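#random but structural
TW: two for the price of one
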Amino acid sequence: MAFPQTRMRRLRATAGLRGLVRETDVRAGQFVLPLFVTETDPGEGASGRAGREPIATMPGVDRLSLTALVAEAQEAAALGISAVMLFGLPAEKDEQGSGAWDAEGVVQLATRAIKQAVPELLVITDVCLCEYTSHGHCGVLREDSSVDNDATLELIAQTAVSHARAGADIVAPSDMMDGRVGAIREELDGEGFTDTPILAYSAKFASAFYGPFREAADSTPAFGDRRSYQMDPANGREAVREALLDVQEGADMVMVKPALAYGDLISAVKRATHLPVAAYNVSGEYAMVKAAAAAGYLDERATVLEILTSLRRAGADTIITYHAKDAAQWLQ
C-alpha cells in the first residue's frame, strides 16, 4: 500500500520504536584496537606519560613501550574490546627486515607480555616487513629495486610462525605478495600451528588514507611507492578476486582496507566469500574525523558511531579502528 496507508515514520517516532526495528548493531566486542609498540622506550616524551610518545597526526594515539602497551591492552579488555592488533617499531632495520621474524623482536615480546597479563584478550599481529626494512618496502628487493614477490614469501611465512610461537591468536599478513596466505598456512601447519587462524589483508588498496600510519609506524618507503603490489583503488572486481584467492589458499578471515570509501567492496567481498570480513578504519579516516571535531565542524561521537554503523551495515563482522576505546565507552 502507498501513502497515506503506509507511513514509514510510524516506526521512527520514539527511541524505543527505533531500537525495536534497528537492522544493524554495533558492539565493543566487534572492535579491534591497533597499537604501535616500540622497542626503544620513549620515556615520558611530550605526553608527560611514561612510555608513551604521541603521534602528531593521530591525536589520542601513542607509540607505546612494552609496559605502556600492557596497560593499554588491559584498558581495552576492560572496555569489552575483543582484540588488539600489534605493529612493531624496531630499534634497528636492515634490507631484509630480519627483525620481523626475530624471536626476541618487538612484536614477539609484546605478544608474550599481553598474553601473560591479559590472556583473554585476542592478539592479532600484523605480518609484514615494511616496518623492519631499511628501504620501507613490504618485501626484499631485486637489483633493480623492485620487490621480489617469491623471495619475500619465505620471510613472511617465517614471521607469521614466530608470531604464533610467541602466542599470537591470529596472524594478519598485510604485504600483498601473491601466494603469501598459502605460504603462511603451509609453514604454520608444518610447525604445529594448525589452529592459528589467518586474517588476510585481501583487498588492501594503494590508498591516500595511509599517510598518518606511515608516520606512526615509521614505514614510509625510502623511494617509489607500493602501487606495484597494493591494489588500484579503481578496481572492485579485482578486490573480490583477491579475496577468493586468499580463501582458496587457506584464509580464515578476509579484510578490506581502507574502510570508509570502500563500503561497496566490503559488501561484495562478504557476499562472495561467505567468510568473516574485517574492515580497517584506517589512520587517515581517523585523522579526518579528529581534525574536523577539533575545529568544531563535526560532533565526534555521532560521526564515529555513524561511520562504524555504516561499516557493519556494509557487511563487516569486525572493525579495526583507532576509535575503538572511545566508541566502546560511548556504547556502554
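TW: number two ↓
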Amino acid sequence: MKAEKESIIKCLQGEPLDTVLAEVMQRPPRRAISTLIPLLLHGEEKVRWHAVSALGAVTAALAETNPEAARNIVRRLMWNLNDESGGIGWGAPEALAEIMAVHGGLAGEFGHMLVAYMRPDGSYLELPALQRGLMWGLGRLAETRSDVLRTRDAPVYLRPYLDSEDAEVRGLAARALGLLKVDEVKERLDALKEDPATFTLYSRGVLTPVTVGSLAGAALKLISPDP
C-alpha cells in the first residue's frame, strides 16, 4: 500500500491533468479511491487538487459498473463532514462536487447536499476553510450541471457569501453566481470588482493566482455578455 500511495502521489504531481487522469484510471477503481481520499489532506497543493479531479473521474467510472459502490464513496465523503465523524472533512466538499460534476446520476441523487451545506437550517458548514471548498464545488457543478443547483434554489443561499469576511469565500461565491447567471447580484458584483484580495484558483487542472475583483468582473460578463 505504501508503494501504491507513493506511485499515485508521483502521478498527481504531474501534468497536464488529462495525462494524470489517464494514468490513475488504469488502476483498480476501489484501490485508487482508497488511496486518493487521504490525499485530499496532502501538504502539496497540486497533489490535493489533482486528487479531487481524480476522485471525480474514478468514482464516475465506478458508478457505471457498480452504482452502489460509487454511492458509498459519496456517503463516505459526506460522513467526513458530519460532526459525529470526529474529523473536519478537508477536501470533501470539493471532491463531492467534482464527482457530481462528472456524473449526472450522482448529481441528481446527492446535489441537494451541496445546497444543504450552505443553509443555516440545513447541514451548514461553519468553518471558512470548508466554505471555501463548498464555494469552489458549487462553481464546479455550475459549470456542467447548473440545473441541479437552480432547481434547489442554490442562488438564494449563495448570495450572502458575497459578504463573507473570507476573501476566498466571497470570490468563489462570485464565480459560482456568475456561472449560474444570477442577474439579481450584478450590483453587488460590480462593487466587488474593486476587491484586491488574492488567492489561488484551481480550474481544469491549473492553479492560477486571482483576485476577488477579477472573479467578480468575470462573473458580471457571464451574466451580461458584451453585445
